[in-house]
Amino acid sequence: xxxxxxxxxxxxxxxxxxxxxxxxxxxxxxxxxxxxxxxxxxxxxxxxxxxxxxxxxxxxxxxxxxxxxxxxxxxxxxxxxxxxxxxxxxxxxxxxxxxxxxxxxxxxxxxxxxxxxxxxxxxxxxxxxxxxxxxxxxxxxxxxxxxxxxxxxxxxxxxxxxxxxxxxxxxxxxxxxxxxxxxxxxxxxxxxxxxxxxxxxxxxxxxxxxxxxxxxxxxxxxxxxxxxxxxxxxxxxxxxxxxxxxxxxxxxxxxxxxxxxxxxxxxxxxxxxxxxxxxxxxxxxxxxxxxxxxxxxxxxxxxxxxxxxxxxxxxxxxxxxxxxxxxxxxxxxxxxxxxxxxxxxxxxxxxxxxxxxxxxxxxxxxxxxxxxxxxxxxxxxxxxxxxxxxxxxxxxxxxxxxxxxxxxxxxxxxxxxxxxxxxxxxxxxxxxxxxxxxxx
Length: 440
What we know:
This protein is mostly helical. The protein has a single domain (9-190, 203-430), classed as Growth Hormone, Chain: A (Up-down Bundle), CATH 1.20.1250. It has helices spanning 9-42, 45-56, 59-72, 75-98, 104-132, 138-189, 199-203, 208-220, 223-251, 256-280, 286-304, 310-321, 324-338, 344-355, 359-377, 389-392, 399-419, 422-425, 427-430. The two termini are 20 Å apart. 56% of the residues are buried.
């Protein structure tokens, strides 16, 4: 390999980041196509939400193990292995489609396998960031990580909605496979240094089983971190329900192009928020960024539930979702800034476990509440048709609007609870910054 390679430092971070962006856009094409396939074949919010449920299900078992592995083994190699396994799942989906044998349960299994693979990658990726990026730029790096997760939300739906009528689901999946190769190439060109041993890391030397619970002990010893995680878990419960409810609600007002366009506008809001975070770096007091924007997001989602037009929903959602990447970026930067690099993997594993533990419940509850409680309330003859139906509308899927308003209230209440806790409000100053260094 040329003397220019492998790439190091911020350059390596940017190359890896770009490869992940391209791959995530490709994965978004497949996700849109499979979403449309399930909704068109079943017409069930519950069947659709089960895809999201199975995508979140492996987390509790895998994330703590993945965190330990990312501290014990080469982080770049773990990321390459993860991308390869996810690509193999996509190949299986393509073969099932081409043979005409694709069924909903196949999607559940493939989704579970791909999610498991991505969960092994995420702690390794997060733990690598402070080794590649100067501490002063961690806020901006967190913003770029948010861009990587939000750019597909704007690009993938509109591209998939425009292409699926011409190339079909199999065409979208083929493009996805090509983008996996881009991610693997980027990882092949970059180097991720091994972190130097810190005092926390030296104290953590133990068996594999003890390593798994180290992250929990580390967080429990810092109550402000634990409260932040409980807040994040509550917000993720709300966002999981939002993610499951939006596609069927939008499809009740239009076709797949409408769905793609509205989801792309939501993605544009997330992208704009991510770019703001990347350029700004967030407020110096990270917790203020998390809770301050959290309140605005909750209020915006409450207003989103009132809309009965897909384009009014798009406008309300654009405003509501603008603060989400800033919230997430501030939280992520706080962890990268405060946790020692050589234990980042183990702490990230438990952090992701707790923070995302509510996702399966959110996905499952969304379908059940929509199909069996909220939608029946706002049918033309439903018990709330003459009261709340005046505000939220009456008809197919209008109960989802009422449920979205309730989700907004949940976020606002969780934010007020966070603001009332001094341990959470003062987290920035109560825990010192970690010393960042690499062993090579």
